[in-house]
Amino acid sequence: MSLYTEKNAFNFPSGMSRKKAKSTSGVFEEADKFRRATYFRTITVAVLGDSGVGKSSIIRHIVGEAFIHEHIPTVEEFYVKQITYRNKTCEIHIIDTSGTYEFPPMRRIAIQKSDAAILVYSLDKLGSFSKLEKFMDEIESCCADSNRRIPVIIVSNKTDLPNLSEPTFVNTNGERVSACDHLEDKWKCQWLPASARFNLNMDVILPKLLDKLSPEKTLERSPSHIWKRRFRSFSDKS
Ligand SMILES: Nc1nc2c(ncn2[C@@H]2O[C@H](COP(=O)(O)OP(=O)(O)OP(=O)(O)O)[C@@H](O)[C@H]2O)c(=O)[nH]1
Ligand SMILES: [Mg+2]
């Protein structure tokens, strides 16, 4: 299947169709290839996490669909979202995996196909936090097969729910640290608090992943304490 869409078609000289231009000269094909590399990226992202943590809700929000209050367990879904990132059009293919049904081979294939992953846990379900380790091991082992590493963002969902507390950990210096510091130290990956229900950080997940995937230097990186502060002020309101 070609991922080239008419929306992203380049401007050929007037009166010349893309097909005709291609057949007229190989030069146009070369220009086409070059421009595609410059202006158009296709990235596949797997979304993993325990049952009911809100993976599908987050994805639905990202692709512009409405929030659903009931839990409809996913088998596997596939979404496409186009975003503009640093003047490039990116087509993001999102694989929504199942947390409810145990399909390890399907999950492994999803990870192997992916350039990046989003790991979701939910603040109202401590068990979903413990399961992050399992998903991280799976990502690492799938990527080791193909000798690569993929960026991962951990999303802590349902921050809108009242009376929730993040687990705390003791670090190697014997200090008590928050879950986000623990995760950032342990796996060196970014952590984001989120609410699919009230649109907290939904719009920043994909750009953050693209920052990690981008070979250019990241222009601006928010220190993690800013996220933590935003998270606290959000919880204070609820
Ligand atoms: N309060 C609150 N509820 C949420 C949020 N995100 C999702 N939910 C609810 O959590 C339940 C499960 O959401 P899903 O998105 O279906 O969860 P999932 O991770 O895709 O679950 P599986 O497909 O079974 O693995 C639904 O009832 C959602 O309405 C959130 O940010 N806040
Ligand atoms: Mg789902």
Spell out which ligands are present.
guanosine-5'-triphosphate, magnesium ion
Lateral arrangement of strands in the main beta sheet: 2-3-1-4-5-8
| CATH class category name of the domain at 37-162 and 191-213 | Alpha Beta
Shape: globular
Give the name of the CATH superfamily of the domain at 37-162 and 191-213: P-loop containing nucleotide triphosphate hydrolases
Class from helix and strand fractions = alpha/beta
Q: Which second-level CATH architecture of the domain at 37-162 and 191-213 applies?
A: 3-Layer(aba) Sandwich
Q: Which regions contain 5 or more consecutive residues with pLDDT less than 50? A: 1-22, 217-238
Mean pLDDT metric: 80
What is the percent of helical residues? 25-40%
**Number of DSSP strand runs:** 8
Count of DSSP H/I helices: 9
Beta content comes to 15-25%
CATH topology of the domain at 37-162 and 191-213: Rossmann fold
For the record, give the distance between the C-alpha atoms at the N and C termini, rounded to a whole number.
Answer: 46 Å
Main beta-sheet strand count, sense and barrel state: 6 strands, mixed
Q: If you compute it from the alpha carbons, what radius of gyration comes out, rounded to the nearest whole angstrom?
A: 20 Å
What series of H and E elements makes up the topology? HHEHEEHEHHEEEHEHH
